[in-house]
Amino acid sequence: MLPSPAPAPLTGRQEQIGSIKELIGAAAQSRGGALVLRGEAGIGKSALLEHARQTAPGFRVIRTAGSEFESELPYAALHQLCRPLLSPEGLGELPAQHRDVLQVAFGIAIGQPDFFRVGLATLELLAVAAHESPLLCLVDDAHWLDPASLKVLTFVARRIPDDSVAVLIAARTPGTPDELDTLPGIELGGLDDAQARSLLAANSRITLDDQVRDRLLAEARGNPLALLQLPRTDGFAVPDTSSVPSRIERSFQARLADLPAGARLLLTIASADPTGDPALLWPAAQRLGIDVPAASTTATVSGLAEFATRVRFCHPLARSAVYLAADDTQRRTAHRVLADVTDPATDPDRHAWHRARAGAGPDEEVATELEQAAARALSRGGVIAAADLIERSAALSLDPAKRIERTLAAVQAKLDAGVPDAAADLLATVGNSAAHEPRLDLLRGQIAFARRDGGDGPMFVIRAGQRLATQDPEQSRRCFLDALEMSLAVGRAQGVMGRVLEAAEAASTGRRSPDILDALTVLTTDGHAAAVPLIRKILEDVAGPLWTDRPGLTAVLAAELWDLDTHAALVTWLMKTGRASGSPLVLRLGLAQLASNSALTGDLVRATTAIAEEEAIADAIGAPRLVYHRLHLAAMRGRREEATELFEAAAASEELSANLHWAAAVLNNGLADYPAALVAARLATSQDEIGLAGFALPELVEAAVRCGEAAEAATALEELTARTGASGTAVGLGIAAYARGLVTGVEEHYREAIDRLEGSPALPYRARAHLLYGEWLRREGRRKDCREHLATAYELLSGAGLEAFAQRAAGELRATGERARRRTGHTYDELTPQELHIARLVSTGATSNEVAARLFISPRTVDTHLGNIYRKLGISSRRQLRDRPDLVGPS
Predict the structure, then answer these.
(1) Which CA distances in Å does 705 have to 399, 675, 719?
(2) Could you tell me if residue 857 is left (phi over 0), alpha (psi between -120 and 50 degrees) or otherwise beta?
C-alpha cells in the first residue's frame, strides 16, 4: 500500500491510535494480543494499519490481505503473512513436525495437514520469530481471507497472551466473519463535521466554493477516504444517493479512465492476481504487448497502485474498482495470460484458478483441472476451499452426469466444512433425480442434523437406507446406523430407535453376520437377557466395524452393560487413534468418554483435565462446548450452584436431556434433597435412553425409597435387576444389590454389594454402598458397625472429591458421636481446569512444547501458567509437581 499522508488521514482517530499503541506496547513486554478494526470501506482501517507499521519501533512487521478474488486457495493469505519467516534459517528453528506441516499447507510438500497442526505450527513460527524481536502482524481485508487462513489466524490470535506478538486485523462491515467475534475489537465510525471539514481542507488540491464543499461533506458522511478521493472527480451537480464505498470505487474508476490503454491493461492484470508478484505480472503483460516500464510508471504516478518489488494498490477498493471496470473479455484475457505464465507443475492450483476465470463457458478440461485442485486443497486441510473449487468445477462441466456428481461432492464438502446452509442452497440446485435419490436423502439428513432441525435428520437418513435396501444392502445398513447415531447425539434415541429397527428389519435381505442393529432389535423385543450375549460378542470384536467405525455406539453399548473395563479399553483406543490422526472429532469423543469413565471410577482430577482439553479443542474449531460432562462432574461433587447454571445452559440448547436429568438426580441424592432427586430420576428413566437409563435406575430407587414411594422403588428395582443380571458385571450386580438392600432392608444385600464392588473400578458406587449400609446400620442401632462403614465411605468419597455424599457420611458419623477426619483441600479446588491439566501433564514429564501442542497454546503461555501453578501450590519446580500424588488421582 502507498504511504499515507500524515497526519491528515488519521484525523479524528486519536482514541483508536491509543488502543493500537497499547496493543503494541503490551506486545513489546511479552503480553501479546489481537485487535480487530471494524468499519465500512474507506473508514480508515487500512490507514490505521499503516500507522501501526510506522509507529512500532523495534518490531518486525509482516502483513497479508484478503482478496475478493482469491478466497478459493487454501492458506493463501496465511502463506503471504508467513513468507518472510520461511527462510531456511527460520524454518530450521522449528521442530520437524511443525516445519513439515507448514510446507504441506503452503503447497511446498505433499501431505495431509489438519487444521490443528497448521495452527500450532503457525503459532510456533510466530513465537520463534518473536524471540529475536517483537512481531507485528497486519491483516487487511479479513472479510476476504480464504477460510483456512482465517481459521488459523483467529486460532493464533487467541493464543499469544505471553508472546511478543501483536495481531492487528481490519475487516469490513457488514460482512465481518463470525470467527473474529471472539477477538477484542473497535468499531470505526465516520468523522464528525469539524473533523471532516479539517480533513477536506488539508487535502483539497483545489479551492472549493461553499456549495460544493457542503455537498462533498454531506455525501462523504464522515468517510475519510471519500473526503480524500471524491474531490478529484467532477459530477457533483446531481446528488448521488448510492453508498459511499461505491462512489469511492467510481472515483478510482474515473482516474483509471484517464490513463493510456497500456497502463489500464497492466492495472487490470495486477487486479486479477492478488499476489502482487512482478515475476508473474511482467511476463503476463508482455504477452499482450504492453510496454511494462512505461505503463507501470504511469500507473504509479496516477496514485492507483505502486509498482516496485511488490505491486500494491493504494486501497482495496482501488483493486476491486479496476477489476470491475474491465469488461468480461478484458478480465478473461488478464486471467488467460496469468494462467499462461503460471507454472502448472509448481503452482497447479493457481494455474487452474486463472484458467477457470479465463473461459467463457463450460470446459471439461478446466473442470477436471479444478476437480484435481480441489483434491489438493482437501489434502492440505482447505475443506471450504475444496468445496468452492468443486462447485466451480461442476458449473464448468459439459457432461450433465458429471455436473450432478460434482455438485453433490461439493455439497458434501460444504457439510464437512461446517457450512450446512451453503450446502442446502447448493443441494437445491440439483432438483429431483431418481438415480440420486438415496444420496440426496442422505445429504438432506446430514444437513438437517447439522442445522439441528428437530428430528428431521434421522428421518431423511432412514429413508435413504430404505431406498438403498435392494441395490446396496451394506450402505443401507450404514444409513440406519447413521440415523441411530444422530438420534443419540440429540437425545432422541428411544423415539427414533423403533423406526430405525423396523426399517432395518424390513430392508434386510440375504444372510449376513449379526450386527448391532440385530442386537438392538433383540434388546427391544426380547429384553436384556436375550440381547446381552449378542451385544457382548460384538463388543469383544475390537477390530470389527463397531469399534473402528462407530466408537460412539460402542461406548453406549458398554455403558448399557455396566462394562467399565470395555469402556476404558475404548477410551484408550479413541485417544490413541485421535492423537495419531489429529482428528478433532475423534479426539473430542475420546476426551468426552475419558471424562465419563474417570467420573464413574472416581478420578475427578483426570475427568477435569479431560474436560479442559475437550473444551480447548471445541474453542479452537469454533464448536460449542459439551456442557453435560462438566455438569456431571459438578453433580458428583455436589456443587448445586455450579450445576444449576450448567443445567440451565444445557437445557437451553436441548442437549441430551436424559443425561441432564440423570446428573440432577445424582446431585440431589448427594445433597439428600430426595424429592428433587425423585423428579429428576423419573425424567431420566422415562426416556429409556440406551446406555443411560440403567445408570439412572439406582438413583430412582434411592430417591423413591427416601420419599416413601415403595411401589415405584420396587418397580424400578425389578427393571434394574433384570438389566444387571443379564450384564453379569460386578459393577452392575453390585449396584443392584445395594438398591435391593434399600427396598427390602435386608442386610445381606448391602454386604453383597460391598463384596461385588470391592474389586471393581467403580469407586463412587463402592463408596455409596458403604454409605448406604452405614446409614442402615445406624438406623438399626448398631453404632459400632455403622461407624466402620461410614468412616470408609467418608474416606473414599472425600478422597475422590464427591463432596455432597462425603458430607452425608460425615453427618451420619456425627450422629454416632464420631467426627470425620478433616481433609485438606483438593488440588483441583486451587487450580483452574486448564492449570490442573497443565500441572498433570507436566507431572508426567511432558515438556512445555508437548503441553502446548496438547492444549493449542504457545509454550510461553504454558510457562506462564506454570508460574501461577507454582505460586498457588507453594512449590517452585517441575520435580515438585511430579512428587504430588494428588495430581495422579485415586486408582
Answers:
(1) 71, 10, 15
(2) beta
Residue 759: Cβ within 10 Å count? 9
Look-up: residue for cell 440403567?
Answer: 694
Contact at 8 Å (CB) between 400 and 377?
Answer: no
Interatomic CA distance for residues 79 and 67, integer angstroms = 13
Cα–Cα distance measured from residue 533 to residue 523, given in angstroms and rounded to the nearest whole number? 11
Residue 704 corresponds to which amino acid? A
- Give the CB-side neighbour count of residue 538, counting CA atoms within 13 A: 27
Contact call for residues 810 and 838 (beta carbons, < 8 A): no
Q: Rounded distance, CA 9 to CA 43, Å? A: 10
Q: Which of 45-54, 285-294, 700-709, 844-853 shows the lowest mean pLDDT across its residues?
A: 844-853
Helix (H) or strand (E) holding 313: strand 311-313
Q: Is the pTM of this model over 0.85?
A: no
CB atoms within 10 A of CB 836: 23
pLDDT confidence band for 134 (50 / 70 / 90): very high
Burial tier of 748 (Cβ tally within 10 Å: 0-12, 13-18, 19+): exposed
Distance CA 488, CA 481 (A): 11
Is the peptide bond preceding residue 400 cis, with omega within 30 degrees of 0? no
Tens of pLDDT, residues 599-608: 999 999 899 9
For β-strands 305-307 and 311-313, DSSP reports them as antiparallel
Q: What is the 3-state secondary structure (H, E, C) of 161-172?
A: CCCCEEEEEEEE
State the Cα–Cα distance between residues 483 and 489, nearest whole angstrom: 10
Record the cell numbers describing residue 882, joined without a space: 511430579
pLDDT of amino acid 244: 53
The pLDDT of residue 241 is above 60: no
**708 or 108, which is more confident:** 708
Cα gap 266→285, rounded to integer Å:
6
- What's the Rg (C-alpha) of the chain? 33
DSSP 183: S
Three-class secondary structure assignment of 728-794: CCHHHHHHHHHHHHHHHCCHHHHHHHHHHHHCCCCHHHHHHHHHHHHHHHHHCCCHHHHHHHHHHHH
3-class secondary structure, 549: helix
- Cα–Cα distance list, 616 to 157, 590, 620, 642 (Å): 14, 14, 6, 20
Among the listed residues 602, 519, 584, the one whose alpha carbon sits nearest the alpha carbon of residue 556: 519
Scored b (16 or more CB within 10 A) or e, 416-443 reads bbbbbebbbebbeebeeeeebebbbbbb
Spatial distance between the Cα atoms of 268 and 284, rounded to a whole number of angstroms = 11
CA 735 to chain centre: 38
User: Does residue 267 sit in helix, strand or coil?
Assistant: helix
* % of the chain exceeding 90 in pLDDT: 43
Grid coordinates standing for 267?
492495472
Handedness of CA 571, 573, 578, 579 (dihedral sign): positive
Write the DSSP assignment of 551-618 as a string of letters: HHHHHHHHHHTT-HHHHHHHHHHHHHHHHHH--HHHHHHHHHHHHHHHHHTT-HHHHHHHHHHHHHHH
DSSP state of 657: H
Task: Find how far residue 726's CA is from the centre of its chain.
Answer: 40
Report the DSSP pairing between strands 185-187 and 305-307.
unpaired
C-alpha cell at 227: 473526503
660, 649 contact by CB (below 8 A): no
Give residue for cell 513439515. 100
Mark 550-587 as b/e (b = at least 16 C-beta within 10 Å): bbbbbbbbbbbbbbbebbbbbbebbbebbeeebebebb
CA distance 662 to 596: 13
